[in-house]
Write a structure and sequence with these properties.
The structure holds two protein chains of two kinds. Chain A is of the alpha/beta class. Chain A is 23% helix and 30% strand. Chain A has helices at 11-22, 48-51, 127-137, 150-161, 177-194, 290-305, 372-386, and strands at 3-7, 28-33, 70-74, 78-82, 87-90, 95-97, 100-103, 107-109, 121-122, 142-146, 165-170, 198-201, 205-209, 216-219, 224-226, 229-232, 236-238, 254-256, 267-269, 274-278, 283-285, 319-324, 327-333, 340-345, 354-359, 362-369. Chain B is mainly beta. Chain B has one helix and nine strands, in the order E-E-E-E-E-E-E-E-E-H. The chains are: A alpha/beta, B mainly beta.
Chain lengths: 387, 120
C-alpha cells in the first residue's frame, strides 16, 4: 500500500493516522478535514472551553513536536468516493488518489427545522459552534436548552455556573432514559433541579418564535418559554451523504464489521460515522463515544494493512463520561436489555452512586457518579466478563 | 527526599498505594511483581491514577483513556499530552520506600494553579 487517505480530521481520523504509523505503515498519508482546524478535542467544548477556563491552544490533540508525516488537506470537503478509480473527490474539484481509505467523517448535530437564520439559536459540535455559543453565553440572559441528553445537560450545567437562567426541555418523560435507563436517567437528570435549573419533560417543541432573533421556545402543549439564547441538543446524524452512490453499504452510517472493514476492499470506517458489528450482541451499533473514536482505529488499521486477513479482537465495552454540576458521571456497557439496576454503593440522594445493570444476573453495564475508583473496578470486571 | 510508603506484604499484586503528599505519588505493584512509583495525578485532569486500570506496565487514567507507562512516565495518547514523573522505589526490611524525583511535576491546570497558590 503506497498511499492511504484518511477522510476526517477529528479524533478518529487522527487516531487512524497514529495507528497507521505505529503499525509500520511508512507510505504517503493524506488526512482530509472539512474544518480548517488541526485535530482538536471536543469533550471540553461543552464544559471547560465554554466556561472560558480552557483556551483553544489546549484543545489540540496532537502533542507538541508530534510529526506523523501527514499531508493535511484542511478546509477540504470530500464529496465523492470513487472506489473503482481509487480516489476521493473534493468539493473544489481536486482528487486524492490512494490505495487505502479510512472513512472517519463523524457526525453532524441535528438541527430544528425552521430555526435556520434565527440569531441566538445554536448547536454544539465544532470549535466554531463553541466559539459562537461561548461569546453569547458571556452576555448572560435566559437560556433554553432543547434536549436533555449529555450535550444539553453539560451546556446547562456550564451556563448555570456562568450565572445564566437555564431551562432544559426534553421530549421524553425522563432525560437520558435511552443511554442510562429510566431509573438512573431520573437520578442523573435530578442534578438540574438540585441547582435550580428548570427541567421540562414529556413535551415536544413546536417551534421557535422571534423575528430576526429568537425570543421564545414554543412547546406543543401551548406554553412558551422566553429565551435569549437557545441551544439545540437533539443528537447527531452520521456524515455519510457524500458516500451515496459509491457502492459502500450504508445503514445508519457506514456498515462495517467488528474490525471496521466495509463491503469495499481497502476501505475501513471508524468513529461516529461507523456502524460497527458488535460480536457480543450479534448486531450492528453506531456508538458516538470519544473512547471508541480513540480505540477502534487500531483494529481498523490492522485490517486495512493486512488486507482483511486479521482476526479482530473483542473490543472493550463502550465507555463514556460526562461532567455536570461538578459531578463526574461515567458509564460503560449497554443499558438497553438490562432487566435490573442496583445501586451498590453511595446513595441516589447524595448523587454519588455506583450502579450495576444486569441481565439474567450477569452485569451488562455500570454507572458511576463521583465514584471513579469503584467504577474502574466494575468496568474491568465488565470487560473480563464480556470477553 | 525518601519516603516510606507501605509494607510490601500490604500491597498485593495488581494494586496501588497512594501517598497523600502534595502532589500525591502512587506506588504500583504489577501483576508480574514489579514495583513502580509515579505522580498520582493524571496530567490531563484531576484524577487519581491509583484508581486507574493497571495492565502490565501501564496504567490507564480512571476518567478518560490516556495510559501512562509506569517505567518511563510516558503517555500514549490524548487527552493527556504530558508524561508523569517517575520516582525511584526500593524495598528495605519489607518496607517500600520512594525516593522522590527532583524534576518539576506535570500537573493538570487546576492542580497546578492550586499549588501555585491561585484559585483551585
Amino acid at each position: 500500500m503506497r498511499t492511504v487517505a484518511v477522510v476526517g480530521a477529528s479524533l478518529a481520523g487522527l487516531s487512524a493516522a497514529r495507528s497507521l504509523r505505529k503499525q509500520g505503515y511508512d507510505g504517503r498519508l493524506v488526512v482530509i478535514g472539512d474544518e480548517f482546524h488541526r485535530p482538536y478535542d471536543r469533550p471540553p467544548l461543552s464544559k471547560e472551553f465554554l466556561a472560558g477556563t480552557l483556551g483553544e491552544g489546549e484543545l489540540a490533540l496532537e502533542a507538541d513536536g508530534e510529526d506523523l508525516g501527514v499531508e493535511w488537506l484542511l478546509g477540504a470537503q470530500a464529496v465523492e468516493l470513487d472506489h473503482a478509480g481509487r480516489a476521493v473527490r473534493l468539493a473544489d474539484g481536486r482528487e486524492v488518489h490512494a490505495d487505502g481509505f479510512v472513512i472517519a467523517t463523524g457526525a453532524a448535530a441535528r438541527t430544528l427545522p425552521g430555526s435556520e437564520g434565527l440569531a441566538g439559536v445554536h448547536t454544539l459540535r465544532t470549535l466554531d459552534d463553541a466559539r459562537a455559543l461561548r461569546d453569547e453565553l458571556a452576555r448572560g440572559g435566559r437560556l433554553v436548552v432543547i434536549g436533555g441528553g449529555f450535550i444539553g445537560a453539560e451546556v446547562a450545567s456550564t451556563a448555570y455556573a456562568l450565572g445564566l437562567d437555564v431551562t432544559v426541555v426534553e421530549a421524553a418523560p425522563t432525560p437520558l432514559a435511552g443511554p442510562l435507563g429510566e431509573t438512573m436517567g431520573a437520578i442523573v437528570s435530578a442534578l438540574h433541579a438540585d441547582h435550580g435549573v428548570r427541567l421540562v419533560c414529556g413535551v415536544g417543541v413546536k417551534g421557535l418564535s422571534g423575528e430576526t432573533r429568537v425570543d421564545a421556545v414554543l412547546l406543543e402543549d401551548g406554553r412558551g418559554l422566553p429565551a435569549d439564547i437557545v441551544v439545540v441538543g437533539v443528537g447527531a446524524r452520521p456524515c455519510v451523504e457524500w458516500l451515496e452512490g459509491s457502492g459502500i453499504a450504508l445503514d445508519n452510517g457506514v456498515k462495517c464489521g467488528a474490525d471496521g472493514r466495509t463491503n469495499l476492499a481497502g476501505v475501513v470506517a471508524v468513529g461516529d460515522c461507523a456502524n460497527w458489528y458488535d460480536p457480543r450482541a450479534g448486531l450492528h451499533r453506531r456508538v458516538e463515544h470519544w473512547t471508541g473514536a480513540r480505540e477502534r482505529p487500531d483494529a481498523a488499521v490492522a485490517t486495512l494493512l493486512a488486507g482483511g486477513a486479521v482476526q479482530p479482537g473483542v473490543p472493550r465495552p463502550p465507555y463514556f463520561w460526562s461532567d455536570q454540576y461538578g459531578v463526574k458521571i461515567q458509564f460503560a456497557g449497554h443499558a438497553a436489555g438490562a432487566d435490573s439496576v442496583t445501586i451498590e454503593a453511595g446513595a441516589a440522594d447524595d448523587r454519588d452512586v455506583l450502579a450495576v445493570y444486569r441481565r439474567a444476573g450477569r452485569p451488562v453495564a455500570v454507572l458511576g457518579m463521583n465514584q471513579p475508583r469503584l467504577f474502574m473496578r466494575r468496568r474491568k470486571e465488565l470487560a473480563a466478563d464480556a470477553s | 527526599m525518601m519516603i516510606p510508603a507501605c509494607r510490601l506484604e500490604d500491597l498485593p499484586r495488581g494494586e496501588a498505594h497512594r501517598l497523600d503528599i502534595d502532589p500525591p505519588v502512587s506506588v504500583f505493584h504489577t501483576d508480574d511483581g514489579e514495583l513502580f512509583a509515579i505522580d498520582d495525578t493524571c496530567t490531563h485532569q484531576d484524577a487519581s491514577l491509583a484508581d486507574g486500570w493497571l495492565e502490565g506496565c501501564e496504567v490507564e487514567c480512571p476518567l478518560h483513556a490516556s495510559k501512562f507507562d509506569l517505567r518511563t512516565g510516558a503517555v500514549d495518547a490524548p487527552p493527556a499530552k504530558l508524561p508523569v514523573r517517575t520516582h525511584e522505589v526500593f524495598v528495605e526490611d519489607g518496607m517500600i520506600h520512594v525516593r522522590l524525583s527532583m524534576d518539576a511535576p506535570n500537573l493538570p491546570p487546576c492542580i497546578a494553579a492550586r499549588l501555585a497558590g491561585g484559585p483551585a
